[in-house]
Prior knowledge:
The complex is a heterodimer. Chain A is mainly beta. Chain A is built from no helices and 11 strands.
Amino acid sequence: GAGVSQSPSNKVTEKGKDVELRCDPISGHTALYWYRQSLGQGLEFLIYFQGNSAPDKSGLPSDRFSAERTGGSVSTLTIQRTQQEDSAVYLCASSRGQGNNQPQHFGDGTRLSIL
Amino acid sequence: GDSVTQMEGPVTLSEEAFLTINCTYTATGYPSLFWYVQYPGEGLQLLLKATKADDKGSNKGFEATYRKETTSFHLEKGSVQVSDSAVYFCALSDRGSNYQLIWGAGTKLIIKP
């Protein structure tokens, strides 16, 4: 497709379960970012990939969170042993490369609800 | 560290009114500045950007000028429409933070007919 695609669009799960969120960036975009949007915290950076490497994991809130990217394309964000405070909209963005002239394009997000 | 501050909402205006949403930033380097918009039920969309001082970004009748002397990037529109109702986010990106977007809290704009 033409834009960033995220799946699932909605996910409801029980506390303690693991979840996997997927992001398919715009074709040819080498940079990929994950953000989280929650009511109390606003928009927060989670992790950044350049190609398959993640040079900046500084935003991951705990060791329950991990992410990978394969083939310089699809990325998955995994949350283990989910907690209620993980409830949020998880947003993925991609850009053609790094640099201030490379705007980030966002997917519609995955709304995660932890019961 | 870098940060963005924008005016709190909601901002409620009548159709055809003049809009200003204030945004100021702190940054150690030379950031790029962005306005993103989130319409109800939709994802974030880039509205406009400016990459250096005195640049003016514009799109859909919205404008913002990168003012280094006042560290500001205020969003303006001369005549708003009901369809402009949305949440507006000011953001910056900087080489020092790997170009991650650093966000303001968002301003909800409500336009009444």
